[in-house]
Specification:
Length: 845
Amino acid sequence: MTIPTATYRVQFRNGMTFDRAGALAPYLRRLGISHLYASPIFKAAPGSTHGYDVTDANEIDPAIGGRDGFDRMIGALRAEGLGLILDIVPNHMAASLENTWWRDVIEFGEQSRFARYFDIDWSRRLTLPFLGDSFERVLAAGDVSVKADPRSGKPALAYFDNFYPMTPDSYAGRESAVLQISDKAGIARLHDQQPYRLMSWRDAASDLSYRRFFEITGLVGLRVEDDMVFDDAHRLVLELVRDGMVDGLRVDHIDGLADPAPYLHRLRSKTGPACYITVEKILGHGERLPRDWPVAGTTGYEFISSVGQALVDATGLSELRDAYARSTGASVDVKQELREAKLLMVDKNFAGEFSALLALALEISSKEPPHPSLADSALRRGLRELLVAFPVYRTYGSFRGLPPESRSMLDQVLGAVRREPGDADLETVAFIARILKEDDARFASAAALEFRTRFQQLTGPLMAKSLEDTLFYRHNAVLALNEVGAEPMPRSFSVERFHAEMSERLATQPDGLSATSTHDTKRGEDARARLYSLTEAPGIWVEAVDRWRGMSRANVQHLPEGPAPEPAVEWMIYQALAGAWPVGLVADDDEGIQALQERFLPYLEKALREAKLRTNWGEVNDAYEAAVLDYARALLSPDNRGFKTDFVETLQPFIRAGLANSLTQTLIKLAAPGVADIYQGSEGHDFSLVDPDNRREPEFAALEEQLPSQFFGSDGGNTDWQTAGFKQQLVSALLGLRHQAPGLFRRGDYLPLAATGDGAQGIVAFARSVSDHALIVVAPRLVFNVLHAPATSQVLRLAQPEIALPPVLANRTYRNLWSSARVQLAKTLTVDLREDDPFMVLWAE
């Protein structure tokens, strides 16, 4: 298998084309990248900003350059020795009239040759939830009419600019007459003859006839478990792999598939052993990838959580959480909050998916002897509790049975339900568990297999939408921990736990991606690194938030349902603003603050709606949202000099500590087990907010210009560790080592290094070792109080501990990456991290 030494993720669209990406190839080579890692490049819905709404998996999108542009990009990459990794989307396609497969299904219904390509319940008419109101109301308003489709000239039901093709049976032999129909009763009769039913988008959650991607009705599930569908959906991408144009694949949302293991084995058999394959898979705490998946690893969300172990102050974290509880006036029970979010998802947002599961359970139970515990209401309660209790995305049962890891996970879930059954009947829960485990031949029916599949395809979206897109916007105590791949549950943080997780990473997925920013993360890596530092000085931060709330009290509006913003949202606003505040932005820079506001207000609106407490995407509370956004505008107003001056002054030590955290985070990613993944622009500073803010195109010209040709010890290097250029050259220097000794970083031992003495708690240190190479990394942590303390000398020392070296590292000569000086080490390493020399990277060739 071809293993990248480092990937560079580029987001196509929004101005990024193949020609522009190809022009970056010389810069990426200088940076040390081995593979460009591309967002989906296949034809997507018109105006798509991300490419995951694919309309044709076998055409390269003309909007970003088409096949000719793609070929030119490949030529540019090859000229610089770079490979390509593609993001593919096997779980879903756009439910769009531009999708010829989907359009054919709309026109011909179950008779379409593509009817089985999509995950559709054909026991009823296909639902198309794209109307602004019910069909009856939009018809009465005159918004639905019969017109000739501009594409085909055939009769269609027209709704504004959308033309839904009619099935030929409804107009055969009378096409001209049908096109003349204009009375509402006649249009309604035509609608009733179609294999589809037009309906309001508001009814999608409870009345959808096809599987969708999470809550997005515009994305319909694909049945790639069917061999024909797999072949048709992968024709072009496999051609690109076989022709040597593509070296690797990133499989989007693997947990959405009916049966991921056979899919991945089929993909591997088609691509061959050399293709590098990773999967987008969020691992719960202690969870591993299934052992039979023929992939290199995940796309690296869990790595973000591991880095937090090294940079969060556990004591300060507890103080911050306590202060948040006092500020909001309620004790924080994260477990209960997650349960409430899941119940909301089951009862409302995924009501249709839940009802379909319940119907299957009732069908299966009808073949059992009559028993009160298998009644509709009892099954409803039992199924609800099982879904809510799931602590991970899914299990992997199939017609082959339930793998041991999945069986163990299901037993844990059953144990949790038994301890806290809620209102569930335990006999009912046990019955559902027997279906999931297929413990009896009676549960080998088609209905039981479908139940297991649907259950597993629901637990993932349920967890994602409850945790990442609900709870992470409700629980605002420490925003840095509200990240994809992380868990908000109270748990200990320590360097020891970080080392244990890195050792585990080496053992289980040394070739998986190590990410710190992605297009799906809640904030940029440097914003997160800065917010980690709040746990180091909770007293300063809490006092400041209380002061700022007092200064802004007059801007809180008192609505009938309560203050806007409420204390928890105020807390969130100040933290999110602190994370996104650009380095060097001063209080009187009105233009710079206005630019920040234009990014911050959409983030805030999204955060309020995702929380689903006082407003949401489906039922917008205009008065509440306006009040909160006005509060934020007032904070950043040119007239509010007092707050902005106070905010900027208070933020300065957190900015410095955050930049130190950023360097440590970067060093860890580049030296620890895994393939270093650089998200576009994050080789410099990345203080972005959640998407779409984090998908803005970086200033590549500036990045290219500031990358020096010589590093650190040379005259041309950047020596100011607080600048974006310093971080960039650190990335480039370490990637150079990865190119020089790929075996060390791929398979080399991971050696935690323990420190003793002055400042031992202020460093994280580890080494990588293989027969002919060794690398020692010593980086700062928890330095807020050191950087913030009054200087007692001209040299500010961050830490001066001593590290006992294991025999494999002792009695060797190393080169200091920072100074290029040769260092002879015996049995110990004396650390002297200073403000002008904040880390140690020692390299033994």
